[in-house]
Amino acid sequence: MMARTLYTLLFFLLTPLIWLRLVWRARNQPDYLRHVGERFGRYSVAPAGPLIWVHAVSVGETRAAQPLIEALQRQWPTHRILLTGMTPTGRDAGAQVYGDRVIQAYLPYDLPFAVNRFFRHFSPGFGVLMETEIWPNVLASAKRHRVPVFLANARLSARSARGYQRIAALACPAFANLAGVAAQTDGDAQRLRALGASPVDVCGNLKFDVTPPPALLDLGHQWRSTLSGRPVWLAASTREGEEQLVVDSWRADGDHAALLVIVPRHPQRFDEVATLLTQRGLRVGRRSTGLPAADIDVWLGDSMGEMVAYYAVADLSFIGGSLLPLGGQNLIEAAACGCPVLIGPHTFNFKQATEDAIAAGAALRVADAADLGQRAKRLLADVSSREEMRAAARSFAAAHRGATQRTVALIAASMDRAGR
Which of 39, 152, 276, 320 is most enclosed, with most CB atoms within 10 A? Predict the structure, then answer.
């Protein structure tokens, strides 16, 4: 209790900085200043009937939640889904994926008065947090309001677990307040149990159950038809500092026959990356202005919600966040689209999925940027090897499906035991 009190006091003291951060981020994304009241527990949307609350912090979690949300709707057809997030891009993704099938709102900041308002206003039957969204006051308030909260698709790297252990007096009671945890892997489950979560079951990764939308696959194929057979090398979900490394590795082979497509992870960086590319003397096209022209070097993927189309157009993909020590991004969506993957050395955030993909032949790990360029050149010239990786990627994705069914079964059994 003392640890949570100190945490709350610190959160209050930092509130002015939180406001400044919202204003700062609104320079590139004005939507950060919309729905501000929701961040403090004030809502205009009225709850209608019984609700199931699902929290997905941003774009990746919002899209990964799709099979789970659809399964929850089938299991509890009289309930509506309340989908909360923390970012405008996540909210936009929710609108694209779910339309008006869900109620959308921001989860308030982890301040007692704000989270208490949230639970009084919506009064959900139970909640599902995606991945590792642990907020001490949210979980304490949920328990006071008798709202069971489950952690789904839960992952916890060894590095993150060590961080939580350093604040065990605050973190362990929060994990203990969970009604149940559906972990991605055995390693995740062990680390979550060590922090006080119980019960913890290994259910797998929900992202394997996300089916690539046919319309986006068709869009990627349409893009390919305009390229006259030109090979495409995709750098997906790149992070700050990686675009320059990718361009240098692409230029090092001296063969620019391949079209380089770069899709930055964060949309607020689109203009920054475009400037970086033009300053390096490259001929740059942008998805926001249409199809790639025949004479460009790089096509900048400055669109949201079209990642599947980029994987569909690519002969080969590199998954960002992994050349620098940032922990990597998830390669499951690329595998589901049958896109061969190159991945850098830093993948601690998605360790198990990455190692399994490499073992299955769906992905290859590169040592650094120079190795990335060399591997990419060899694979782009080797159609048979790419086709083997493409088939392995699809098989890998198919073999790991089923997490949604296991997760819903876990939640349903827990709710039955509680008589709810």
Answer: 152
Within the chain, which residues score under 50 in pLDDT? none
Angstrom CA distances, 395 to 10, 215, 247, 332, 351, stand at 48, 22, 31, 12, 19
Does the annotation count 61 as an active-site position? yes
CB atoms within 10 A of CB 151: 27
Q: Using the structure block, give the residue that is written with the tokens 């599947």.
A: 308
Phi and psi at residue 28, in whole multiples of 5°? Answer: -100, -25
Q: How far apart are CA 51 and CA 63, in angstroms?
A: 20
> Which neighbouring-strand residues pair with 270?
none
- Annotated catalytic residue: which of 61, 131, 243, 333? 61
> Which amino acid is it at 83?
L
CB under 8 Å to 314, separation ≥6 — which residues? 220, 232, 233, 234, 261, 339
User: Residue 4, exposed/middle/buried by CB under 10 A (0-12, 13-18, 19+)?
Assistant: middle
Q: In 3D, which of 111, 154, 166 has the Cα closest to residue 135? A: 111
Separation in Å, CA 292 to CA 100, 223, 225, 313, 392: 33, 8, 11, 12, 29
The H or E element spanning position 126 is strand 126-130
Q: Is the peptide bond before 199 cis (omega within 30 degrees of 0)?
A: yes
> Hey, what amino acid is at 227?
L
Report the alpha-carbon distance of residue 20 to residue 23 in Å, rounded.
5
Q: pTM here? A: 0.86
Instruction: Assign 22 to helix, strand or coil.
Output: helix
Q: Which residue in 351, 338, 354 sits closest to 392, CA to CA?
A: 338
